[in-house]
Amino acid sequence: MNQYKITGLAQGTDYHIMYYAADSLATKSGIDSLLNEIDLSMSLYKKGSLINQFNSSTKGAKLDTYLNAVLKRSFEINRDTKGIFDITVAPLVQAWGFGPAENNREPVAEEIKTILKCTGMEKLKLENNMLTKSSPCVNIDLNGIAQGYIVDLIANCLTKKGIKSFVAELGGEIRIAGPKPDGTAMKIGIEGPGKDGTPVIRHIAVSNSGAITTSGNYRKFHQSGRKTISHLIDPKTGYPLDNEMISVTVYAQDAITADGYDNALMGMHLDDALKFVANRKYLEAYFVYRKKDGSIADTLSNGFKQLIKN
């Protein structure tokens, strides 16, 4: 068995694929062609993409297979998290200076109130491959789930070619199929706090198939005086999250699930998030959080403990 690597760009980020096979069964051109097809469907950076057509429409748009699959899962996760996961938050993200357009000004309360009239997934309806909206101002942004879905599509593509052992990563979202040909587990590094609060890399070992995704506040934030403003916005209040969470890493069978839930768990308080994960057999999670005294600590679900290798 030989090891093969493919790297490239997609969805405004980069991707890395490593697989073991007797021959180069998957090629860069094949992967890029799939990713280009997906970009035409759900990339906000691609002029004329289907998602941009929906956003600029007054009533809605007919969906392709890709968008339909992501939206179906988005509605399920939105219901399961009681609205914490919400794909209509794009105008709020933009207002707080984290969107594609330049913005260095904090929004005032009146602006937030106005924007909230255009957000909330109850303003969307998915039926017969058609997504409609109750008001022209409703926009969707699949940033919190699309990359996980794309990694799943890459993984399906590799599996169909008969590749049984691989790691596929896009923008930090990862799908794994293991073990390696020699029988050892695939190892993935995740960032956690050391005893003195400085970051350390913890390793998890995956011997079968699964997905790992992370959502965090530690890289994307603004400083406003002494206050740190998170890029993760609470869809109910319209304001950035202000809780103890620093990052959440989720393990699930597929990346669309892990990716969809990691942001939602970031939006919960730690105790609620731990209970939420414990009640769902298909999720395991690792949390890095800030204690009341300001120090940084970590904790994890029981299933995640079994993945961590010292």
Structural write-up:
By secondary structure, the protein is of the alpha+beta class. It folds into three domains: 1-43 and 143-173, no CATH class; 50-133, ApbE-like superfamily (T-fold), CATH 1.10.3980.10; 185-309, T-fold. It has helices at residues 28-42, 50-56, 65-80, 90-95, 109-116, 146-160, 255-266, 270-278, 302-305, and strands at residues 2-10, 13-21, 60-62, 124-127, 130-133, 165-170, 173-177, 186-193, 199-206, 209-216, 221-224, 227-230, 245-252, 284-290, 296-300, 308-309. The protein has an eight-stranded antiparallel beta sheet. A three-stranded antiparallel beta sheet has the order 3-5-4, covered by helices on one side. Helix 6 packs antiparallel against helix 7. The protein is globular and about 60 Å long.
SSE layout and pairing:
Layout: E1 2-10, E2 13-21, H1 28-42, H2 50-56, E3 60-62, H3 65-80, H4 90-95, H5 109-116, E4 124-127, E5 130-133, H6 146-160, E6 165-170, E7 173-177, E8 186-193, E9 199-206, E10 209-216, E11 221-224, E12 227-230, E13 245-252, H7 255-266, H8 270-278, E14 284-290, E15 296-300, H9 302-305, E16 308-309
Helix pairs in contact: 1-6, 3-7, 6-7
